[in-house]
Specification:
Layout: E1 5-13, H1 16-24, E2 29-33, H2 47-59, E3 63-68, H3 77-90, E4 94-97, E5 111-114, H4 123-131, E6 136-138, H5 145-154, E7 158-165, H6 177-182, E8 199-202, E9 208-213, E10 220-222, H7 227-233, E11 237-240, H8 247-267, E12 271-273, E13 278-280, E14 295-296, E15 317-325, E16 330-332, E17 343-347, E18 353-362, E19 365-368, E20 379-384, H9 386-394, E21 398-410, E22 413-420, E23 425-431, H10 440-451, E24 459-467, H11 476-497, E25 516-517, H12 526-534, E26 539-540, E27 554-558, H13 562-565, E28 581-584, E29 590-596, E30 601-606
Parallel strand pairs: 1-2, 1-11, 1-12, 2-3, 3-4, 4-5, 5-6, 6-7, 7-11, 10-14, 21-24, 25-26
Antiparallel strand pairs: 7-10, 8-9, 8-28, 13-21, 15-16, 15-20, 17-18, 17-20, 18-19, 21-22, 22-23, 27-30, 28-29, 29-30
Amino acid sequence: MNNLKKIELLSPAKDYACGIIAINSGADAVYIGGPKFGARTAASNSIRDIGNLIEYAHKFRVKVYVAINTIVFDNELEEVKDIIEKVYRLGADGIIIQDMGILEMDLPPIKIIASTQCNNYDLEKIKFFEKIGIQRIILARELSVDQIKKIRESTKIELESFVHGALCVSMSGQCYFSEAVAKRSANRGHCSQPCRLPYSLVDSEGKILAKNKFLLSLKDLDLSQELGNMIDAGITSFKIEGRLKDEYYVSNTTYYYRRKLDRIIKRNNEYQKSSVGECISTWEPDIEKTFNRGFTDYFFKNNKEDILSVSPKSRGKLIGKVKTISKNYFILEKGIELSNGDGLCFFDKKGNLQGSNVVKIFGPKIYLNDMSQIEEGVSVYRNVDTVFEKQIKSNPIKRVVLVSIEFKEYDDGVIISVRDDEGNVSEIKKQIEKVLAENTEAALQNIKSQLSKLGDTIYEARDIKILLEKPLFFKMSFLNSLRRELMENFDKKRDESYKRETYKITPTKNSFIKENLSYEDNVSNTLAEKFYRRHGCKNIEPAFEILEDKKGKKIMTTKHCLRRYLGKCLKENIKELKEPLYLVNEKGYKFLLKFDCKNCQMEIYYRS
């Protein structure tokens, strides 16, 4: 029995095309939004596209998880159930959910994954989810490695963790900022991203402590150097954020982490990749060359410094400082190969990100279509690398399943067989008149050449054994027909051999971690209310989205603290700020800040 720990690289799929790219770039699993009710409504997909993606994914034993992770209203419950039943019939390996009302439905036996929108931060809540039958938890991004270890020590549930990509400043599922200011609920998949906008920080007397800065916009997560520590802590699924990202980001980032994880797996005989297939590429991945706001490891090592991005836009990769500047061009301190159309950006004296495109290169001279903002000494980043993007697009990564082919004879003809590393085998026996070859070497080469032509399939011949008593001559048309029939049969057999894991949740009466629920528990329908009452909850406040009076309510809980950002941490007894503090946006709206120092959290309140 194979007791190796399966390590899963989980990549985003905005749509079918991005899903295929993620698979070919080395993903062990992909997550994709359903037709509705995904936490990214701009990344919804048809049932047909999801089915086609599942069919392709399973050829490589890649799993497909469908995100149905918004809160749901009563009039939508039947539609949600219908979508779940459809994706299950198509072969989906799991559904990602936030709304506990879904667990009150008569569901097919599909794997249930608790979305990070469930705010999976508290150990007791995670233990509760395990007791009621949920199979996997997507952990809160704010957790440190020590907290993850404690969760692993206390549970056996599968642990999935974000490893790369955009960070929400709010603890997931606890953000009502967008709903409050724009009537667009993050818990309904419509986030307007107010955290990516500029704000001023003012004290109780109106003094401006920080003016018009991106005070809630975080850098992107990069835990690529912590993969070994994450595995040791108990993570088995490594998730890349990006269901709104393009094909370049998906391919580059997935392939980057594929190679990192493969090196770890190769060094440790206790681990194995959870899918099959080898990736073939002609280019080197570089996570700085596609979308990023700069990188942070966030709170993984209890870090709290340098997590804010200076701009919510992608800054790309640092290429050097401006050495010389003239009216029409500039020169970098160190020469770097650029191309027409490359996007360059830099921060001006006010700290604002400025950008322009390269229109001409002449020796070391770089000409932009807008030279008005660039100055001597500034650091220049490339956020659009046209050559790199062209490499990804024109030379896409190919994923293949390696097979061994054997060609031999019997009394009345020949037998050809193919085998993969999973033990799948197909064989064809053909009667044929045997004709001795006049040229032994040419005959053997002809057989090998024709049997190795698997280019229109996902297979690649690792080795071909030709076992003939005497060299025989075969027409190319016969060998080609034999190969096609063999691989078609083999492909069908492999498809049929895929075994999806099934799970059936049985209702329990385990007590929830508290009896009284607030709007922050996101109960938005009668089935969710029924679920929590069955688990001992007595007083249940409706979700923020259906509250009649939202004023004065907390709209965000975050581990990012603006007192700490100012160097005025209360834990260090620095109390000189005149509180309360407020965030003020360009429209003049004021948002009250409160500081929960015991839990090292900041809270934002609506129009107090």
